[in-house]
């Protein structure tokens, strides 16, 4: 009997040891990892419930938020700490003690320091998100040892040095985002056919040399901002290598002297002709360009104006910078001034109103509330200028609203204004120009012959980004009376260099008082979500799309609603598409009170997205 009891005890001990979840060492390591990430917030681990005495993978345990586990292994699979204001460093040695870690999300923080070489100890890592931080130094060559890596996002940091060539040999790598860093050298020969739309981007670095073969289908936007790059898909071809010439025999001293003086006299003569010709050309160009610039200035300032001759007079430029040394009240009292809110990322020059009006302008679009122009500055940098017809409210209210919105616009999915101008003649708002255009144009292009289709995961990522950006702005601008977007639609969702969505023109228009600013934005987002799911861009009346979707759903033909390109695409789940459709329909409810808040919408979409990623990881590991 005693032997049986001992056997049963040993059996139960070893059995529960196998399913007990993460070990005590792993729990302590993860807590130390979090403490290194948040040195100024020592209570963060406690608030998140990261406690070494509890098992993060025990379904009955309280705490351990911001991570998920693999049910079968009872081990931590995903850590999600994005957008939490973390300003410490990455201790990869502690992080990688979790042996089953597959996804790490640390983007949209203020993390400093380097990316440690010990990151290669996370041998099962598939997705690593470190974008929008303050990381520096070179990329460790050990990154190439992550043989299971699928997506690497290091965008919008301060990384420098060359890319490890061995990175291109990770056969399953399908996402590589390093835009907006200081990386240099050549681009390795990746398996470019593995990358979907928007999942490869090396723009705005210091890369040089020819672009490897096979990158033609990636698109030129992924390589912009690297002056030394050449070859397709960029328009500038690479120069052929110059043939080496055989050495010529040395001339005699007398012959060399004769040739020298003859050449010098010819150079002086030809230089005179060239200088005269250049002067005449410059004068002619000055006259021609001056006339064209005057016409363009008139086009920007006077178009759509009731006055036949409308002009703006700038008294001075008020540079506020990121700290806003001028108050809302002082900005409101300024008249006829260009208020510079932030430094443009596309031009290093100081923005001045006279130069803005002199620059060549191209009309991009015209809507109910105004027109948008692409303006090319003297240094070649492009800006987008919105000229408003009637934004609602007085000029003073408009100025106060613009300053408040700028102080809140600190989210990666919200495009902040660079400057604004307000006078009795009209209002202008300046933004950095986004080369990849609007979501509306992308959806229209995908429905035309030859247009590229965008898969389910991309559409889900875009929906989540817009929802998070809106929820953030609603929260930040709720203290003194909510400022909503006021005119949210797919043409105001611009795609940045990494093909991530940026909400533009926030707060330029005062929303109708009937629905409330927040609920009006929720409705606008719902229409955008329906556009993403159906692939049907709104033509005139957004309510028509909502009515059509509702009618199809009522007939129980729900699957007929979805864009055929995502239904037939890889990784798409009909169940999760239906969940997203239900979110969209809740947002466009005719009753404003019945619509959810943007914070609730963002939570619902992120839950679907996390479920989608877990499903993808499980299918990849099987």
Automatic annotation (TrEMBL):
Keyword Repeat: yes
GO molecular function, one term: protein kinase activity
Transmembrane segments: 267-289
Localisation: Membrane
Signal peptide extent: 1-21
Database matches in Pfam families: LRR_8, PK_Tyr_Ser-Thr
Binding site for ATP: 386
GO CC list: membrane
Region (Disordered): 234-259
Biased composition (Pro residues): 238-252
Matches recorded under InterPro entries: At_inactive_RLKs, Leu-rich_rpt, Prot_kinase_dom, Protein_kinase_ATP_BS, Ser-Thr/Tyr_kinase_cat_dom
Domain Protein kinase residue range list: 358-617
Keywords assigned by UniProt, alphabetized: ATP-binding, Leucine-rich repeat, Membrane, Nucleotide-binding, Repeat, Signal, Transmembrane, Transmembrane helix
Designated name of the protein: Protein kinase domain-containing protein
């Amino acid at each position: 009997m005693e032997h049986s009891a001992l056997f049963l005890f040993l059996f139960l001990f070893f059995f529960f040891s196998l399913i007990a979840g993460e070990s005590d060492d792993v729990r302590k390591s993860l807590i130390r990892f979090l403490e290194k990430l948040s040195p100024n917030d020592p209570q963060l681990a406690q608030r998140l419930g990261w406690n070494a005495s509890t098992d993060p993978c025990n379904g009955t345990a309280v705490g351990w938020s911001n991570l998920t586990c693999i049910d079968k292994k009872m081990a931590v699979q995903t850590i999600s700490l994005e957008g939490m204001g973390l300003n410490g460093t990455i201790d990869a040695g502690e992080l990688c003690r979790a042996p089953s870690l597959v996804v790490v999300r640390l983007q949209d923080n203020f993390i400093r320091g380097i990316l440690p070489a010990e990151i290669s100890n996370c041998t099962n890592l598939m997705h690593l998100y470190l974008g929008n931080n303050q990381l520096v130094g070179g990329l460790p060559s050990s990154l190439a040892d992550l043989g299971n890596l699928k997506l690497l996002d290091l965008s919008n940091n301060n990384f420098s040095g060359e890319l490890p060539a061995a990175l291109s040999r990770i056969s399953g790598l399908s996402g590589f985002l390093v835009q907006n860093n200081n990386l240099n050298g050549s681009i390795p020969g990746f398996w470019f056919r593995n990358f979907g739309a928007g999942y490869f981007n090396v723009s705005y670095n210091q890369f040089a040399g020819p672009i490897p073969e096979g990158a033609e289908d990636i698109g030129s936007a992924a390589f912009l901002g690297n002056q030394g790059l050449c070859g397709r898909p960029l328009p500038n071809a690479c120069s052929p290598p110059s043939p080496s010439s055989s050495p010529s025999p040395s001339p005699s001293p007398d012959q060399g002297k004769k040739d020298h003086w003859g050449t010098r006299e010819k150079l002086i003569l030809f230089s005179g002709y060239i200088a005269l010709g250049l002067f005449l050309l410059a004068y002619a160009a000055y006259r021609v360009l001056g006339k064209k610039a005057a016409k363009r200035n008139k086009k920007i300032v006077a178009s759509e104006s009731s006055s036949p001759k409308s002009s703006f007079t700038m008294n001075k430029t008020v540079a506020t910078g990121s700290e806003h040394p001028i108050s809302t009240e002082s900005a409101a009292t300024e008249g006829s001034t260009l208020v510079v809110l932030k430094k443009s990322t596309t031009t290093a020059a100081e923005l001045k109103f006279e130069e803005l009006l002199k620059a060549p302008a191209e009309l991009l679009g015209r809507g109910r509330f105004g027109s948008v122009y692409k303006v090319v500055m003297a240094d070649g940098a492009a800006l987008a200028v919105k000229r408003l017809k009637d934004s609602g409210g007085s000029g003073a209210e408009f100025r106060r609203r613009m300053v408040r919105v700028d102080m809140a616009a600190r989210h990666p999915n919200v495009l902040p204004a660079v400057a604004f101008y307000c006078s009795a003649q009209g209002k202008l708002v300046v933004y950095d120009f986004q080369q990849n255009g609007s979501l509306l144009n992308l959806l229209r292009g995908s429905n035309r012959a030859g247009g590229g289709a965008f898969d389910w995961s991309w559409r889900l990522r875009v929906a989540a980004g817009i929802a998070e950006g809106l929820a953030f702005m609603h929260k930040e601008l709720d203290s003194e009376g909510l400022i909503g977007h006021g005119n949210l639609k797919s043409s105001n969702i611009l795609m940045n260099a990494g093909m991530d969505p940026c909400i533009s023109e926030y707060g330029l228009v005062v929303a109708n008082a009937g629905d409330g600013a927040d609920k009006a934005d929720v409705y606008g987002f719902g229409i955008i979500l329906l556009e993403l799911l159906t692939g049907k861009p709104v033509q005139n009346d957004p309510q028509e799309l909502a009515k059509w979707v509702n009618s199809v759903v009522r007939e129980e033909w729900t699957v007929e609603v979805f864009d055929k390109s995502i239904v037939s695409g890889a990784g798409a789940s009909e169940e999760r598409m239906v969940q997203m459709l239900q979110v969209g329909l809740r947002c466009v409810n005719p009753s404003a009170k019945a619509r959810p808040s943007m914070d609730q919408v963002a939570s619902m979409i992120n839950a679907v997205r996390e479920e989608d990623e877990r499903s993808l990881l499980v299918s990849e590991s099987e």
